[in-house]
Amino acid sequence: MEQAIEAEDRVLCRLEDIPEGGAKGFPGPPGSFVGLFAVRKDGRVHVYVNACPHIGLPLEPLPDRFLDTRKQVIICSAHGARFRIEDGVCVTGPCIGEALEAVPVRLVDGQVVVPASAGL
Ligand code: FES
């Protein structure tokens, strides 16, 4: 069955707006102070709430700078926590064993779609 974009969905961007092996940040939904970010790796897109489980700060030091220089892990610029791209689990740093809040994501006609409530 063909997937469709529903009223409760939010289109973040087109898939090609996120470079393979790269990341991109997005503002939160209206009424939220917390943004989202997406990482594209190995043909998949992973979306997380942009709040570190350590003390809730946004992760990136500069726009779209969510990954380490080798683009192997997500890194929090505040205190250096590192998270697996695949599941958001912290593997080193002050919140080791905790995880970023994952957002369900779908690809619909080349668009990256999440629930409109993600980040609220
Ligand atoms: S806020 Fe992310 S490591 Fe401290």
TrEMBL record:
CDD domains attached to this UniProt entry: Rieske
Domain Rieske: 10-114
Record-linked Pfam families: Rieske
Tree of life domain: Bacteria
PROSITE patterns: RIESKE
Key words, A-Z: 2Fe-2S, Iron, Iron-sulfur, Metal-binding
A GO molecular-function descriptor: metal ion binding
Classification via PANTHER family: PTHR40261, RIESKE DOMAIN-CONTAINING PROTEIN
Name assigned to this protein: Rieske (2Fe-2S) protein
Organism per entry: Dankookia rubra
Lineage: Bacteria, Pseudomonadati, Pseudomonadota, Alphaproteobacteria, Acetobacterales
